Amino acid sequence: MVLLVGIGIGSAGNGGDSQESAAEPGPTVTVTAKSEAEKDTADTAPEGKAVFKVWGSAPSGVEITYGNDGTNLQGSRLPMTKTLTVKDDALYYQVTAQLMGGGDVHCSVTIDGKTKTGRAQGGYNICSAQLNSDFTGGFS
To answer: Which CATH number characterizes residue 57's domain?
Structure first.
C-alpha cells in the first residue's frame, strides 16, 4: 500500500496537462589546459637513454637526486629534465625530489617508452619514481 501511494505521488506531477517544462541543467564540463611541463612528460626517450623530469612548484626549494643504482646525481631548479645513457648492468633508474617546506611537485623517469611517475605535496614530502630492470633486459 505504501508503495502504491509513493508511485501515485511520484507520477502526479507528470500528468502531461501542464504547458510549462523545467529545463534540466546540462552537465558541467571543466577543461584545464596542460602546462608546458605537463605536455613535455610524454612517454618518450631517445633509444638507450633514461630521461628524468621534475616539475611543479616548490617556493621553499627542492632537493633533487637522480641516476641509477650506482650513480646519484644532483638536480637543478624546477622544471628539470636530465638524460643519461642506460647501462646494461643497471638494476634501476630513479628520481627523487624532496620539498623543503611546501609545494607540489611531480617527477618521472622514462626508458624505452616506459614511464613511472610520482607526486609530492606539502611539507617535506618526497616525490619518487623508479624503473627497474627486468629479466628480458628491459625496464618496467
So the answer is: 2.60.60
DSSP β-bridge partners for residue 114: 111
Sequence-ordered list of residues with C-beta below 8 angstroms from that of 134, at least 6 positions apart, any chain: 140
Give the cell for residue 7: 508511485
pTM as predicted: 0.69
Residue 82, Ramachandran bin (φ over 0: left; ψ between -120 and 50: alpha; else beta) = beta
25-50 pLDDT tens trace: 544 333 334 444 444 445 577 888 99
Q: What is the mean pLDDT of residues 49-62?
A: 96
Q: What are phi and psi of 124, to 5 degrees?
A: -110, 35
Structural domain total, the chain: 1
